[in-house]
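Exercise 7. Given the encoded structure of a 446-residue chain, write a plausible sequence.
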């Protein structure tokens, strides 16, 4: 009996040793040296092959009428809009005097906005052209054929019974490593050694965090990576944006102080890296925010500041208005474009619909996180160029590189009502158009 117990204990020890060796060889060491063994690339290729097979199964199994309904379901919009300005549309209705038909232009725009405005849809998950075998994007497609049903069930077992437990264990290990390592490094005196160790800890933990999600990140134009004393601005889709960028370089973050779990992470990072954090009340004081950012970038020895000028998460189909604050402080702007592949997992965080824990659960149970990151050439404000035009110029460059549309709207519309200034802008534009056509003096009022 005792021999059986000892044999069982030895067997468990060997299994634990094997798993430890595999973890160190396949996960930890590649993360430390930031090298890829090609496992993620091979895994993603298998997923792409599986998705292509599933698409063929759906096309063969769905009848023509159902296929038409599916096409309507996965379309990117329900309204075909004409991309013409107010001046172009109203110009064709001019007859030298006030035309009541002008009202129909605003009536049509109002109806389009009620049915499907171009702002609200940016705060919902991006629609997929083909099904990625996830239940959260399922349109009852797993019933198309028994083969597809079997693959769908096997996918659930793999994601929840194999990948998710491993990802949770790796995430816990990463968090403990971050807290313990930053605590130790924080005790070192300020100097080159502490600076180097802090950067290594940040990048290793960020790389492990990306591996927690089976992440595959393609970095382009690394020669344009942000330099010390600069400002890195990027489009914002998810909290993962920080993790992905931090796996390839070190940054100082600008943001609001948090409590709870996020507060613990912030305090750990603050022991080794200088971040620009504010209380909620201070965030409303724009002058104070700009002052602290200006003081930070004035020291060329400090890490570049990472800022998301949109101020909220957008669903990675467009780039919305950049707040002008980060473009008023001077310094060099390093634009970065981030584009996720929604086929493997929806990286967008809809904070109005999902809590942070729900979002983390969805990420850990997705197939993978695949994205491209482009480092764009640095930009500076031109002479006589104000902050708004500079922000729009940077935004246009980022959107063009990532293949996303440019929207002038404020991302704050996710939680706030439309500002009166937006309404007044349209009214002024119409008045200028009316005055230019010379019919306001006939007793009409703008």
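Solution.
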């Amino acid at each position: 009996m005792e021999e059986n117990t000892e044999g069982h204990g030895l067997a468990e020890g060997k299994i634990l040793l094997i798993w430890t060796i595999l973890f160190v060889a396949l996960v930890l060491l590649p993360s430390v040296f930031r090298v890829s063994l090609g496992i993620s690339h091979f895994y993603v290729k298998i997923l792409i092959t599986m998705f292509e097979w599933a698409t063929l199964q759906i096309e063969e199994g769905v009848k023509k009428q159902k296929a038409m309904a599916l096409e309507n379901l996965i379309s990117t919009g329900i309204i075909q809009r004409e991309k013409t300005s107010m001046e172009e549309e109203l110009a064709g209705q001019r007859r030298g005097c006030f035309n009541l038909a002008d009202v129909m232009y605003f009536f049509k725009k109002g109806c389009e906005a009620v049915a499907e405005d171009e702002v609200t849809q940016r705060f919902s998950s991006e629609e997929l052209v083909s099904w990625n075998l996830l239940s959260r994007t399922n349109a009852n497609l797993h019933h198309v054929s028994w083969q597809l049903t079997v693959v769908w069930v096997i996918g659930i077992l793999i994601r929840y019974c194999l990948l998710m437990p491993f990802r949770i264990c790796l995430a816990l290990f990463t968090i403990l490593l971050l807290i313990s390592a930053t605590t130790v490094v924080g005790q070192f005196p300020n100097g080159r050694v502490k600076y180097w160790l802090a950067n290594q800890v940040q990048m290793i933990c960020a790389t492990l965090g990306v591996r927690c999600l089976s992440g595959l990140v393609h970095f382009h134009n690394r020669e344009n990576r942000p330099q010390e004393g600069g400002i890195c601005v990027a489009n914002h889709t998810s909290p993962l944006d920080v993790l992905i960028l931090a796996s390839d370089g070190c940054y100082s973050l600008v943001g609001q102080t948090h409590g709870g779990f996020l507060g613990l992470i912030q305090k750990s990072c603050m022991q080794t890296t200088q971040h620009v954090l504010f209380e909620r009340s201070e965030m409303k004081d724009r002058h104070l925010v700009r002052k602290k950012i200006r003081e930070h970038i004035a020291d060329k020895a400090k890490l570049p500041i990472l800022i998301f000028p949109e101020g909220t998460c957008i669903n990675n189909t467009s780039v919305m208005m950049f707040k002008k604050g980060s473009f008023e402080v001077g310094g060099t702007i390093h634009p970065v474009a981030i584009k996720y592949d929604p086929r493997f997992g929806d990286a967008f965080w809809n904070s109005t619909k999902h809590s942070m824990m729900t979002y983390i659960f969805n990420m850990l149970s997705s197939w993978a996180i695949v994205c491209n990151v482009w480092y764009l050439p640095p930009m500076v404000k031109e002479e006589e160029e104000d902050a708004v035009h500079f922000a729009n110029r940077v935004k246009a460059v980022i959107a063009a590189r990532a293949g996303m549309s440019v929207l002038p709207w404020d991302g704050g519309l996710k939680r706030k009502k439309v500002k009166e200034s937006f309404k007044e802008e349209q009214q002024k534009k119409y008045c200028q158009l009316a005055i230019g056509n010379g019919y306001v003096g006939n007793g009409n009022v703008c």
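Remark. Confidence is low (pLDDT under 50) at residues 73-80, 438-446. Students should compare their own answers with the one above.
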